[in-house]
């Protein structure tokens, strides 16, 4: 599929005649192109994604912007054209719509689970109170006096319930980070255990206390205290199963991105496959550089250039079939393979040279721009109130002097689609506010950063698909491989168990460190 991502950033000093004439010429040329025929297995379609134009940056200072800006900024800053390896058809669009409908079902399932847990928790906290109050309501006159012992038990129950409430809120009532395909086994087992436990206490209470109307009120209160103590022990068990069990590293996982081969290693404990996948995705957004499909088009364009240089002539007439032409092209490509590495070497060397050259120009332009800014002190702000600017105005004032160098560097390194003019101005204003150096400002653009550094709408994938031969609720094991897929790429995760390490001890006596100086005739000593 030929995908053209054209993200235009409108600049107030931009030359309207030049931009509109180029776009009209390009649109007229695209309309006269004939659509390519289907090859039988996949269709060729063109998809254009445009973002709404940004607002003017310099306000009324358009004359200052024209002096420091290139006329082609709005036309060429964030436009990239390449060939994608994916093709979107009507079936794919229908599948995406179905996934959106399924996501609604996942939300209902999540809220249903929260509702069940909340109802069960409310039942747990009200049960000890009900055990204590029901005898006082139903047969108050028949109860034996309890006195100071019961009052002390009341205080104990109150504080234990308070501790249990705080611990339950801290452990269970958290903002969910993801929707997992299956239930969390240990959490479900704990809910079932609590339900059976409370149900058995109610059953015993109804048979032995309510039916017989037991008059030993101290024993009833102690029965409620024993319930609260057992609930505290269940909460401790939940902490061990849900939090402490996974802390000790037991496995090492290697995560490889399928498109460019970037990889990272992580250590995990005893986790299920779905929870391990969640940990991998959390670390992916933090550690992996942002996925840039523009960097992958170089090899494809190079291969297409080599094949475009081959011409096949049919000297035997129209009777010769296409298989002979294919063999001729393959043979010609094999003969040119020996010289293709030289072209690759000089192409990469030329690209590195251009990157270094434009990087040097960018560094110099930014350093010169930062020299025009001076932070005013408190006493200086009272002297010249008419000349003061806020960080946003200062960023707009110095941006035109570095805009062209930054534009060319981002285009050369193929990062322009991740940095709009508005985001650059916001980052520049942030650096000016916090008195950061030019080197700190350039760090975001000179080195590709992690995925979370960029705008959320440009990298965030709403839904990932977990592909595994094993059940996703089963625990990690040595040799397990699972894949996390999104629309553009996939993450291949290979699990290896940390080997058992055996250490031995060897004692060395400190008094055994004795040495003798050897003197020879030819030495200088």
Main β-sheet, in a few words?
5 strands, antiparallel
Radius of gyration: 35 Å
Order of helices and strands: EHEHHEHHHHEEHHHHHHHHEEE
Strand content: 5-15%
Low-confidence runs: 1-94
Q: Strand order across the biggest sheet?
A: 5-4-8-7-6
Mean pLDDT: 75
**Which class best fits the helix and strand makeup?**
alpha+beta
Number of helices: 15
Distance between the termini: 80 Å
Shape category: elongated
Number of strand elements: 8
Q: What is the percent of helical residues?
A: 40-55%
Pfam families: Strabismus (PF06638)
Keywords: Cell membrane, Membrane, Transmembrane, Transmembrane helix
Family: Belongs to the Vang family.
Subcellular location: Cell membrane
Report on the architecture of this protein.
With 525 residues, the protein is of the alpha+beta class. Among the domains are: 96-246, no CATH class; 251-292 and 460-497; 293-297 and 333-447, no CATH class. The protein contains 15 helices and 8 strands. It has helices at residues 16-31, 62-68, 73-76, 90-138, 148-171, 185-210, 217-244, 273-287, 297-308, 322-370, 378-383, 391-412, 421-433, 438-446, 456-459; strands spanning 2-6, 46-49, 79-83, 251-257, 263-268, 465-468, 481-485, 490-497. Strands 5-4-8-7-6 form a 5-stranded antiparallel beta sheet, covered by helices on one side. Strand 7 (481-485) and strand 8 (490-497) form a beta hairpin. The protein is elongated. Keywords: Cell membrane, Membrane, Transmembrane, Transmembrane helix. Belongs to the Vang family. Residues 36-45 have a biased composition (Basic and acidic residues).
């Amino acid at each position: 599929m030929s995908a053209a991502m054209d993200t235009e950033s409108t600049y107030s000093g931009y030359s309207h005649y030049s931009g509109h004439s180029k776009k009209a010429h390009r649109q007229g040329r695209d309309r006269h192109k004939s659509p390519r025929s289907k090859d039988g297995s996949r269709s060729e379609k063109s998809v254009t994604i445009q973002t709404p134009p940004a607002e003017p940056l310099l306000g009324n200072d358009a004359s200052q912007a024209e002096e420091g800006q290139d006329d082609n900024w709005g036309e060429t800053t964030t436009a990239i054209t390449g060939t994608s390896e994916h093709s979107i058809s009507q079936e794919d669009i229908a599948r995406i719509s179905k996934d959106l409908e399924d996501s609604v079902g996942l939300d209902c399932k999540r809220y249903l689970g929260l509702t069940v847990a909340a109802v069960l928790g409310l039942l747990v906290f009200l049960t000890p109170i009900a055990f204590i109050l029901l005898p006082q309501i139903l047969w108050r006159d028949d109860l034996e006096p309890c006195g100071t012992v019961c009052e002390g038990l009341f205080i104990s129950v109150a504080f234990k319930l308070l501790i249990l409430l705080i611990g339950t809120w801290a452990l269970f009532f958290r903002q969910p980070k993801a929707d997992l395909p299956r239930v969390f086994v240990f959490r479900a087992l704990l809910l079932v255990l609590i339900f059976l436990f409370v149900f058995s206490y109610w059953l015993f209470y109804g048979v032995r206390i309510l039916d017989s109307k037991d008059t030993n009120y101290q024993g009833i209160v102690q029965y409620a205290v024993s319930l609260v103590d057992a609930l505290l022990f269940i909460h401790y068990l939940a902490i061990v199963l849900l939090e402490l069990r996974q802390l000790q590293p037991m496995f090492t996982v290697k995560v490889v991105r399928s498109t460019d081969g970037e990889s990272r290693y992580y250590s995990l404990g005893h986790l299920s496959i779905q929870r391990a996948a969640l940990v991998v995705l959390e670390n992916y957004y933090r550690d992996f550089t942002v996925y840039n499909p523009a960097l992958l088009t170089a090899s494809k364009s190079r291969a297409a250039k080599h094949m475009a240089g081959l011409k096949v002539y049919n000297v035997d007439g129209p009777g010769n079939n296409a298989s002979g032409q294919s063999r001729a092209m393959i043979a010609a490509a094999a003969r040119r393979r020996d010289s293709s590495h030289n072209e690759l070497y000089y192409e990469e060397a030329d690209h590195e040279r251009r990157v270094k050259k434009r990087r040097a120009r960018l560094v110099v332009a930014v350093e010169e721009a930062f020299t025009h800014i001076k932070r005013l002190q408190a006493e200086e702000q009272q002297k010249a109130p008419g000349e003061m600017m806020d960080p946003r105005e200062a960023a707009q004032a110095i941006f035109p002097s570095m805009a062209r160098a930054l534009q060319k560097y981002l285009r050369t390194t193929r990062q322009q689609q991740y940095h709009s003019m508005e985001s650059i101005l916001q980052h520049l204003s942030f650096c000016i506010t916090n008195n950061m150096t030019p080197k700190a400002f350039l760090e975001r653009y000179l080195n590709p950063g992690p995925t979370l550094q960029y705008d959320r709408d440009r990298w965030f994938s709403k839904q990932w698909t977990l592909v595994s031969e094993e059940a996703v609720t089963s625990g990690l094991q040595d040799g397990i491989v699972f894949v996390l897929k999104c629309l553009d790429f996939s993450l291949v995760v290979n699990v290896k168990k940390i080997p058992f390490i055996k250490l031995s001890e060897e004692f060395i006596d400190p008094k055994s460190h004795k040495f003798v100086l050897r003197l020879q005739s030819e030495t200088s000593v």
